[in-house]
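Hi support team,

I'm filing this because I wasn't sure whether my run with 6-O-phosphono-beta-D-glucopyranose finished correctly. The job status page said complete, but I'd like someone to confirm that the output block is well-formed before I use it downstream. Pasting the exact inputs I used:
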Amino acid sequence: MVVFGAAGDLAKRLLIPSLYNLTRDGLLDKGFRLLGVDHNDFDDQSFQTEQTRFIHAVAADKTSEFGKAKLSEPTWKRLCGELGFMKGDFEDPATYQALGQRIGQTANVLFYLATSPRFFGDIVEQLAKAGLTKQARGWRRVVIEKPFGHDLASAKALNRRILKVLGEDQIFRIDHFLGKETVQNIMVTRFANGLFEPIWNRDHIDHVQITASETVGVEDRGAFYDATGALRDMTPNHMFQLLSMIAMEPPNSFDAEAVRTEKARVIDAIKLQTPTQALHNSVRGQYHAGACAGRRLVDYRQEPRVARDSRTETYVALKLEIDNWRWAGVPFYIRTGKALSARDTEIAIAFKPAPTVLFRDQPVSTLPPSGLVLQIQPNEGISLHFGAKVPGEEMRISGVDMDFCYADWFKTGPATGYETLLYDAMTGDQTLFQRADNIEFGWRAVQPFLNAWAKGGVVHGYKAGSEGPAAAATLLERDGRAWRPLGT
Ligand code: BG6
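And here is everything the job wrote out:
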């Protein structure tokens, strides 16, 4: 495995800990070696020392997923001994010549691009030019991190560039949300149970809410985030992965192409909004100072490396429609943001209410809506909300919950979420990776919002630690609906 950007944050926080977990589980081949490539002055020895220092720090942090397990020294030593480093400039052809020599006769190589996105196209072209992507004796695959493009045109251009030198079967466009167990379980919930599928459509579902709220601010990513914003950072990728899992048609099989085809089809069916609709159906927000999860956050505009007059959104809410037979007329409300009152990623399916006719002589004007909530993180689980009679002489109905909680049923070892993705890339399973068309359909669906916002519209303020801008509530209230409170 060759990791470009090996001295960066992603490599040490996620890739190396995931490889450690794969080593622990006996899922890495004996001949596995990792070669890091970056601008820094490490050699094999100092790279190993640095990674050892860092993994101990992560393991000591009991709030991190990784830190929940005890680090086994013999396991770490085994992996650490396989780590190497090569200093190199990503744009210099000499780097690829030297890399070719280090790789030598190795048959199978996974190139992992954990660099700034501006290098993606260059690295792939240079690898190909140096003959390193030729699959003569084994396989050669390239994993590309997000963001894949910053709008439709740039995503298309990048796809064109890399597809000139690689086959689609060599490209693994990563979206780490697909590494989450709860996201993979959406397909199992829907398709391994006869219970849900018959009611999973416009006849029975009133609307769908997809939420990814975070309590953190932009932290030390101001430069990246200010040029990106919540829409680009989360929507065409993570939010649409959740949307496609929940809304796709059943694939003919669990074969990677069958699954990827259905996911792409449903994203293709997202209705493209006119400029007026795009403004009407979106709300942008930016956080102001406030207290969030016990920490004080400053105004977004005061965060390091953020422009003092920035109009970048740290919150976005959208109303989308999927124009196909299953979903026509069912709104999909999506919201994501930073500095909010709770960390909460969930998908809520609201079912149509029952007719109240049976209860017309009772003091019941509306029945509590029933719904299914897939809690992606934290407190991973699934809950069914429905109405039940409150014990007593009068007919009163109250909403109650039936809960399934992962932690109660399954004992799983701590994981970063990248283990499955790395394992799949090495075994050549592309199911959890995005195909070119899927990426482009995603950007195409958000492009009308980017275009409309570039011309104007309001960026609403919201207090850090709140549920987001008041205007986001209006987006649903005008349809007679309401967001589920965050963190419930
Ligand atoms: C990343 C975004 O892709 O996903 C971040 O760039 C965001 O801004 C993160 O915080 C959320 O991922 P998770 O797994 O913490 O929900």
